[in-house]
Amino acid sequence: MLDKERIPAHVGVIMDGNGRWATQRNLPRMAGHNAGMQSMIKIVTRASDLGIKYLTVYAFSTENWKRSEEEVSGIFKLLIKYVDSELEELNRNNVHVRILGDYEVIPKLALESLKKTLASTKDNTGLQFNIALNYGSRAEIVRAVNRIKDDAVSGKLTGDVTGETFSRYLYTGDENGNIPDPDLIIRTSGEERLSNFMLWQSAYSEFAFTKTLWPDFTPEIFEDILEEYQNRERRFGGRK
């Protein structure tokens, strides 16, 4: 049984399998993305109910621009749909939305909707829902190095750069409230790789892989994975 006193503080989710879900049903890929969005809504609600403090979902990577123009456009239209339909519910559940990634470059209408959500939820104190959007961990690390270099040259940053210093310059750092490293990262659809997601932050994360395609991922499966996580012994390189 899930112990609500030992819920992980931060869970990351690589939402994978929307396209395969659609293909199995002879549906267009966008039908899979739409079904995946419905799953995401349910998981955000359940994470909030369980008292998880941070939930980070990998929504759109820096590599996803390589997909067809039709699919990319459709994904951002879904983002607008999500924002418009769920903003009231997010506020009702006290969810604080933040973005990880270079999101200023996304299409104008999607950006405007997103900024509306960020502004509307900024004072909420419940679950912090991080959407990794136009995000890639290697790009994030390079960006951090350049920001550190600039601050060192300007004199804003002095002394040695420590791991703690470096972390503050990542998207999960100062600009987003110093989000703690994920305790658990879940990937759906049977793939077992990080795909450029939180490479620095996941150094001591636990991983859970499920063959379930993301549109079929339910709150019940989510809780089963959390329960399995609670049965693990985390040593962070040391010995108990």
Please list the strands of the largest sheet in the order they lie side by side. 3-4-2-1-5-6
What's the helix-strand series?
Answer: EHHEHEHEHHEEH
| Shape label | globular
Average pLDDT level: 95
In DSSP terms (H or I, runs of 4 or more residues), the helix count works out at 7
Rg result: 18 Å
What is the correct CATH architecture? 3-Layer(aba) Sandwich
What can you see in these coordinates?
The structure is a single chain. The chain has 7 helices and 6 strands, in the order E-H-H-E-H-E-H-E-H-H-E-E-H. The protein is an alpha/beta fold. It has one domain (4-136, 180-230): Undecaprenyl pyrophosphate synthetase (3-Layer(aba) Sandwich), CATH 3.40.1180.10. It has a 6-stranded parallel beta sheet, sandwiched between helices. Strand 3, helix 4 and strand 4 form a beta-alpha-beta unit. Helix 1 (18-24) packs across helix 2 (29-50) and helix 3 runs parallel beside helix 4 (108-121). The two termini are 24 Å apart.
